[in-house]
Amino acid sequence: MTLQAEIGPTVVALGGGHGLAKTLQAAVRYSPAVTGIVSIADDGGSSGALRNDYDAVVPGDMRRCLSALTTEDSLLARYFENRCTEGVLASHPVGNLLLATLTVHSGSFQQAIDEARRLLNVTSRLFPATQAPVKLQAQTSAGVITGQVAIEQQKIVHSIGFAEPCAAPASAVTAVSECDQIVIGPGSFYTSVLAACVVPNLVQAITESTAQLVFVANITNHHIAEDATFDLEAQLNVLAAHGLLPDKVISPKDDDVVSASGLIHDPQKLGVALAACIDR
User: Fold this and answer.
1) Are residues 212 and 249 in the same domain?
2) Confidence grade of residue 79 (pLDDT, cut at 50, 70, 90)
3) Could you read off the pLDDT of 92-130 as tens digits, one per residue?
4) pLDDT tens digit sequence for 165-222
5) Is residue 80 located within the same domain as residue 200?
6) Are residues 143 and 254 in the same domain?
7) Which residue segment(s) compose the domain that 233 sits in?
8) For a Cys staple, 196 with which of 14, 104, 159, 252, CB 3.0–4.6 Å?
């Protein structure tokens, strides 16, 4: 355990999208020191458009994490997720535009994230999974497919990687190396969860870490490739093939982690389940 052990475990969560946001909301309920490592491989929607325009900004998943962690009751916090409805900015969330603008003017996505954290009173640390935007590349039944959106349209995905060399920021690697618990999932299995975890220096840090590795399984398989045959056992086999061997698995079939809607994880319930993993 780290020096934080006297007041609670240190936790690092990796992934992207809504799934990582729920995990971070769960983790802050039992950990005083939470770090999120967020995939920036998204190439669709507002993030994709901003990426094409600026060639350096993929803010969507980071925006969701900031929104999930904010404790600020301010105008910015209330409208951070709101999307513009007219003109050239139509469909862009306010948070994406803020992160993109701060990145362009500061020259650093990390500085933009840290400033947004300050404005939103987010105490958890957040890092992008790669130092620059990357293109996901997958081995599929149709051959090699490049790009997050294109990969999500494939029926069978064998493995995931990147079209170009990439590395995580040193601070993200250090966080993984020094924490007590690493949490991966839930979320789109290949394009969010693995997209963050298989960055070469991150997966090395995960495999070398003495921290407990927990996999949070999805409630339903919403990826096209994740049909009824892509069950928990199949997912664990894919994780193993990518060098990831969880010590604990939280599955909605075995754990009380589902919200009242039955569609998403409940952060409070998930926090209880994750904290219990530490005590086992």
Assistant:
1) yes
2) confident
3) 788 888 998 899 899 999 999 999 999 999 999 999 999
4) 999 999 999 999 999 999 999 999 999 999 999 999 999 999 999 999 999 999 976 5
5) no
6) yes
7) 1-41+129-280
8) 14
Model confidence pLDDT, tens digit, residues 88-102: 566 678 888 899 889
Residue with the two structure tokens 């007219």 = 86
* Domain end (from 128, 149, 173): 128
Handedness of CA 124, 129, 133, 135 (dihedral sign): negative
Helix %, strand %, coil % of the chain (to 5): 45, 15, 40
Q: H helices then E strands: how many in the chain? A: 12, 9
pLDDT score at 92: 76
pLDDT confidence tier of residue 156, bands split at 50, 70 and 90: confident
CB atoms inside a 10 Å sphere around CB 253: 9
Cα–Cα dist 242/170, whole Å: 21
Query: 62 and 119: one domain?
Result: yes
With a CB cutoff of 8 Å and minimum separation 6, the contacts of 217 are 185, 186, 232, 235, 249, 250, 251, 252
SS3 49: helix
The answer on 25 and 140 residing in a single domain is: yes
Residue 8 maps to which CATH number?
3.40.50.10680
Farthest CA pair distance, the chain: 54
User: In sequence order, what DSSP letters do the residues of 77-110 get, joined into one string?
Assistant: HHHTTPBP-SGGGTT-BHHHHHHHHHHHHHS-HH
The answer to whether residue 239 scores a pLDDT higher than 90 is: yes
